[in-house]
Amino acid sequence: MNILRIFVNLFRFDRANWKVVSLCVLTAVVFWIFNAFNKNYSTNVRFPLLFEFDGEKYAPSEHLPKTVNLNVSGNGWDLFRKHLGLKVPPVIIPLERAKEIKKIVGSTLAPMLATQVGNLKINYVVTDTLYLQIDERDTHRYKLVADISGVTFREGYGRTSPVVLLPDSIELNGPQGRLHALDDSIVLVLTENALSKNFRTEAEVVFPGSEFLKRNPPVIQIMFEVNQVVSIKKNLKVMVDKSSGQEVADSVEALFQIPASREEDFKLQSHEILSEVRAKQFRKFRAAVPRVVNIPPYALLLRVDSVHAKGRLILP
Question: In this structure, how many other beta carbons lie within 10 angstroms of the beta carbon of residue 57?
């Protein structure tokens, strides 16, 4: 009965009693944690990876593995810090012949990394295989071209000057294979809506795979003039090489866009505009799109009709 009364008095709502109970529980938990963390355990720990190779001679052509998963044994405190990401320096894998190494089997890494994991012991490497794509470093220069097909203008407005890029080329440095896979020109796509004034912007040179390359410069300027424009149709004389004996339409219709302020100039100069077609253009089809020449620099060719062969084809 006395024992029962002691327990009842202990858990009776008394602030002083509950403080004592809480302190006892907290002390017991702390002692249990310290005792548990001082023991040795085994667990999987993910370590950051650093590959060491001659960066002036080689460059990665794909993203290199960033981590390696190791099963390690060690003191509970050390393992706890590793799990929280505290004091986890990267493990280093040296690559003497970087281009030749395409993969590293995980089981071969334990001896190499054993001295890099501090007080921990590596039981085995969980990561099965590390795949690498490293190529020789090279440098090439490429022409830059702006694609403004996605640019729209306010009604009655249009582009009235060539598109200017400053600079108009870029030097790329990186893995040889990626450089050789690029076209001679790098196309930068512009998208703007309802332009009605001169356009000028800074554009970053980005394209698929550009994250693997050093770009010089990484940003360029793109500009062109925008003014009020008018559209003018004109029938152009068709020039064809006479050696084919091929007859074509005498003229073809073309549509031009010019600044509204140059309409009179265009009327005076438009007689010099010609369209040319070669007989070999009819080799597969009896129609061909002529090449328009002598266009004034302020005029933009929007459309030209195709020409059709009239008689028998005589091709070289």
Answer: 11
DSSP structure class, residue 244? G
Please check whether residues 208 and 277 belong to one and the same domain.
Answer: no
Model confidence pLDDT, tens digit, residues 164-208: 999 999 999 999 999 999 999 999 999 999 999 999 999 999 999
Q: Which of 107, 132, 157 is the last residue of a domain?
A: 132
Q: How far apart are CA 186 and CA 179, in angstroms?
A: 11
What is the C-alpha separation between 171 and 167, in angstroms, rounded? 11
- Alpha helices (H) along the chain: 2-11, 15-37, 76-83, 110-113, 176-181, 263-269
Question: Is the pTM value of this prediction over 0.85?
Answer: no
Last residue of a domain, one of 173, 207, 224: 224
- Which whole-number Å values give the CA distances from 291 to 176, 180, 276, in the listed order? 38, 32, 5
CB contact set of 251 (below 8 Å; sequence gap of 6+)? 235, 236, 237, 238
Which residue in 31, 116, 102 sits closest to 72, CA to CA?
Answer: 116
Instruction: Tell me the per-residue pLDDT of 230-287, one tens digit each, with 9 for 90 and over.
Output: 999 998 888 776 555 455 667 889 999 999 999 999 989 888 888 877 766 666 666 7
User: Cα–Cα distance between 7 and 73 in angstroms, integer?
Assistant: 44
Q: Which domain range does residue 301 map to?
A: 230-308
Pairing between strand 274-277 and 226-240? parallel
Contact of 195 with 163, CB cutoff 8 Å: no
Co-location of 46 and 109 in the same domain: yes
